[in-house]
Each structure stands twice: as C-alpha cells, then as structure tokens.
Amino acid sequence: MDWINGMRCAIEYMEEHMTEEISYDEVAKQACVSVFHFQRVFGILCGITVGEYIRNRRLTMAGEELAATNCKVIDVAMKYGYDSPDSFTKAFIRFHGIRPSSAKEHGSVLRAYAPLHIKYSLEGGGIMDYRIEEKEALKLIGMKRIFQFDDAYQNIPMFWEEFFKNGYGKEICGCFGVCIEESAKEKTFTYMIADLYDGKQEIRDEFTLYEIPKGEWAIFTAKGPLPKSLQDVNTKIWSEWVPNSREYEVAGGYNIEMYTEGDTKASDYISEIWVPVRKTNS
C-alpha cells in the first residue's frame, strides 16, 4: 500500500473511533507502517501530531454536541475520553475560548477543526540530492533520552542545549542525532546525541552504546542554516521521495541526522539525513 492510501485509511480509522480509546499501534496498522514511522510522517505531512489531531477533532465534536443537544457536560466529557469534568473544561477553554456550559448559550462562538482529507495533487518536479550507500554496522556512543512525539520538536533542541551546557560536548561532539523506535511505548521514541564509538572513549554512567546493523541507507544532503534546511529536506523525503521510490522502501525503526563541523547558521552549512532502506523486491 502506498503512503497516500495508507494515510487515508489511518485518518478514516481515527474518525470512526473518536469516542473510543484510540491505539496508535492500530492506527499505524491501517497505514501498513510502524508506529514510529507513522507518527513521524503524519507530523511532517499534516503539520500536526497525531495526538493534537485527535484532541482537536474530539473537542470540535464535543462543542458541536453541547451546542446542539441537551447532553450534560460530564457525559460529553466522558464520551470524548476525559476522566474528569475539570480536565475537560481546561481543554475546552484552551480550544474554544469559552467554558463547556457556555456552549449551550444561544449565539456562542465555537471553533471547529475539520477532518483531514487526503487529495492527489501535481507536486514535486524539484531536485533532491541523495545517494544510496551500504554501511557496515554503526556502533554509537552517546546520551539518550525518551521523547513524546507531541512535543519532540520543542524539546529535542532543548536537549542539545542542555547537553553542551553541561560540558558533554568535550567528550562527544554530537556528529549524529539518532531517532530510535521505542516499541514498548507507542507514543514515544528515543533520541540519541551520538558519535561513532572507537573503542577508546570512556563509557560514563550518563552515556550508552547503541549499535545499528549493517545495511543500505538513502542519504539526503541539506544545505543551509539549521533547523530549516533539515526540516525542508525531511518534508521532501517523506512527501516526495518515499511515496515515489519504486526501487527502495523504508527499513528499520530509526533514522539519522548527520552534522558537519562549521557554523550551523551559515547559508552553506551541510548536513544530512540518513534513512534506512531496502530494495522493494527483497
């Protein structure tokens, strides 16, 4: 199943189960990909995390129901997955700007977040620099931390700042940023600031070793200041290259950002994104 049809099936599944507990694992199965890759691709293509989409749709539906029926606030709160009226009220105010009880008043203004619809459009036609390389197993040393998909974009840069502020950069320069699938927790993944392990570095309590098996990689080059250059290339990888690649498909629950030395804000700064791949007929 291609990415477009997979995303459509996943969105339809979420819409059909908004009043139930939605398993991210089950949503990803609709798209025929892992939870890790689905959440990354959804965020890149849709501009919103899976959790934010579900929350916005539920609050939209809750507002419509309160305005159009005589349902009690507590019943609507429970229907859309909130454990208490207080948590529902706080979320409702953040989204709609009014209390749930006010939604019943004539003339109240509510916000609506419409369901996503996947459409085919003529896009692409641009040039992407990439190469296919086979690499031996990569043994990495670095510092790991678990992140929620919903706030990773905000928290990972803070992780890097903290890493260098605490002096760890003297031992590990941070050549790689590695995203690793966290299979035990469907809404999280592990991010690792790492270097290649040469067998000589001291493995302090704060550090860990992680090995990525031998395999093929699609390596994409980004030129320009961070983080925009990497983000732009990442979007193109998942919205253009992956859906249209006939020879290769994504393999492995991880991907790598590779950073070179130099000024990361310079217009000629070079970085790379490594995506594990395998031939489609293998």
Compact description:
By secondary structure, the protein is of the alpha+beta class.
Q: What is the number of beta strands?
A: 9
Helix fraction, binned, reads 25-40%
Would you state the CATH class of the largest domain?
Alpha Beta
Quaternary structure: single chain
- CATH superfamily heading of the largest domain: Regulatory factor, effector binding domain
Q: What is the gyration radius calculated from CA atoms?
A: 22 Å
CATH architecture of the largest domain: Alpha-Beta Barrel
How confident overall, as mean pLDDT? 89
Helix-strand pattern? HHHHHHEEHEEEEHEEE
CATH topology of the largest domain: Multidrug-efflux Transporter 1 Regulator Bmrr, Chain A
| Structural class assignment | alpha+beta
